[in-house]
Amino acid sequence: MTAAVDGALVDMMAAVFAGHREKHPPTTIVRRDPDLWRQLDELGLVRLTGNEQNGGSGATWFEAAELLTAAVGHGVRIPLAEHDLLACWLLDATGMPVGDAVRTVCVLDKRGAATQVPWAASADRVVLVWRSNGQHRVADVARETLAITPGFNLIGEPRDTVDADLAAADGAPVGLALITQLRLKSGLVRSIQVCAALDRILQLCIEHVTARAQFGRPLAKFQAVQNLVSDIATEAALARAATEAALSASVAGHWSGPDLGLRVAVARSCAGHAASVVVRNAHQVHGAIGTTREHRLHEFTRAALAWRSEFGSVRYWDEQVTDAALYASAGGLWSLITG
C-alpha cells in the first residue's frame, strides 16, 4: 500500500491465505486457527513489525498493510493486527518482554471494564491500558486473570467484554503521546481492513456483471448497472487514497505530527461512508444471489460494515474532522486540507 513492497513477499502472503481458505470454508463463529498461526509464525509474519532484537521481523507498516489486505481478501479472520501492530508494539514501546504468547489490547474504563474487545477470550495474554490518578498505565496480564464474557461482531469475530481488577493490576506508567499513537494505530488498522474489503467487493461485482447475462446481453452492458459499479469503484478508490495518505504520513513522521490525527480521521471517515455506498450498490448489482450464504459477497459486505464502527464509530471520526476544520478557521482551512 503506497510504498513499494517486495512482490515476492506479497505473493507469498496471498498464497498462504489462499491455501488456508481452500481447506477451511467460512464458519458462523470465527476462532483463531492454531495451525495457521503456527505457519505464519514460522514465516515471520506474526510479529512482522516487531523489533528484530525482540524476536520481530523488523518490517514496516507498509508490509503489515499488505499482510492485512491479503488476509481480508481471502476471507481469513485472524488477530494479526491486534497482536503485532497494537499489543506487541505497545510492549516494545514500554520496554516490556514479549515472548511467544498471542496477545490483544484492551482499553479499560475507570471501572476496569471494556466491551467489544477483539479476540480477548482466545488470546493467551491481554495488554491492558487504563488511566489511574491522572496517568495512563499499561500491563501485560494472562487471560485467566480477567473476567471475560464472549461476544461477537457482525461477521462472527470475537468481540468480548472484559472486566479487570485494577486494584491488583501492576501497570507501567506511559505518556499521553503513546496512548494517542495507540488510538491512531487502532483507527488506521480498521481503515486498511475496510479498504481491502471494499476492493474485494468491487472485484466480485466486476466478475458478476461481466459473466452474468440478462435479456441476451451481459449485465455490464446496462447503463444502470454501470452506474452502480462505477460508484462502487469511485468510493473504494477515495477510501483507499485517504487511507494510503494517512499511512504514508504515519510512517514518514514516525506516528507523530500536528496533522496526523486529521489524516487518520479523514481516512476513517472516507472508509466509513464509502462502505455504505459500496455495500448498498453491490447487493443491488448481485440481486438475490448476493444475499445467499453460498455466495461470498456477504463475507466482505458484512465485514466492511462491522469494521467501520470499531475503534471509533463513523460519527466519532467525522467529528474529529469537523473539529479540526473549525479549529483551523477560515484562514487556515486551505493549508489544513492541502497539508
From TrEMBL:
Keyword annotations of the record: FAD, Flavoprotein, Oxidoreductase
Keyword NADP carried by entry: no
InterPro entries, A to Z: AcylCo_DH-like_C, AcylCo_DH/oxidase_C, AcylCoA_DH/ox_N_sf, AcylCoA_DH/oxidase_NM_dom_sf
Cofactor needs: FAD
Range of residues in the leader sequence: none
Boundaries of every Acyl-CoA dehydrogenase/oxidase C-terminal domain copy: 192-309
Coiled-coil portions: none
The keyword Oxidoreductase belongs to this UniProt entry's keyword annotation: yes
UniProt-listed SUPFAM superfamilies: Acyl-CoA dehydrogenase C-terminal domain-like (SSF47203), Acyl-CoA dehydrogenase NM domain-like (SSF56645)
Family: Belongs to the acyl-CoA dehydrogenase family.
Protein name: Acyl-CoA dehydrogenase family protein
Origin species: Mycobacterium lentiflavum
